[in-house]
Each structure stands twice: as structure tokens, then as C-alpha cells.
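hi! just following up on the protien thing from before. the input was this:
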Amino acid sequence: MKCLIVLFLTLTLINPALAKESRQQKQDRLDGACEVARQKKLAPIRKQFVDECVANKEQANRKECERFYADYGARTGGRAPLFYDLPECVTAFEYRQGVRNRSS
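and the predicted 3d structure came back as:
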């Protein structure tokens, strides 16, 4: 991800026309930032669940525990997704809503 950002910044310095983002590109960038923030927040929680799973022998081995908790925080099994209230996700949501409100 950092490499892509550095590459983009380098290209925009070489060709300033590339700095102009379309609405979709901006939405994709905001959505990506949201997912990075969510995964960063979810990673230690998943690790804790996996460690507890291994310690309590809830699954056959660590790999199975990791597979079991791989989707923790996602919208699965009737559970609401977690951490869409992070600032990056709120920004992405509000930008998307602005697009919808303009077309109404």
C-alpha cells in the first residue's frame, strides 16, 4: 500500500495532470483507507481470539483457529461489520452519500 502511495505521488510530480482524481478514484481511495484502518484495528483482536482458540484447543491447530477467525469483524452470519465508525470510514461514507445526494 505504501509503495502505491509513493508511486502515485512520484507520478503526480512528474505529470501534474495525474493529480486530478475522478470521483470514483477518490471514492476508491477513501474506501481503501477505511479498510486499512479497519484491518489495523481488527488484527490484534483476531490475534487474541486465535491465541485463546489455540490455548483452549477449540480447533485442531493454529491454522484452523486462524481460518475460523479470519472473517471476524466482517458482515457474516448475521453479524454487523465492525469499525465502520472509524474516521476514515465515516469520511468514505459521507463522500459516497454526497454523490447520491447530488444525483437525487
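The mean pLDDT is 87.
Helices lie at 2-14, 23-55, 62-69, 87-103.
cheers
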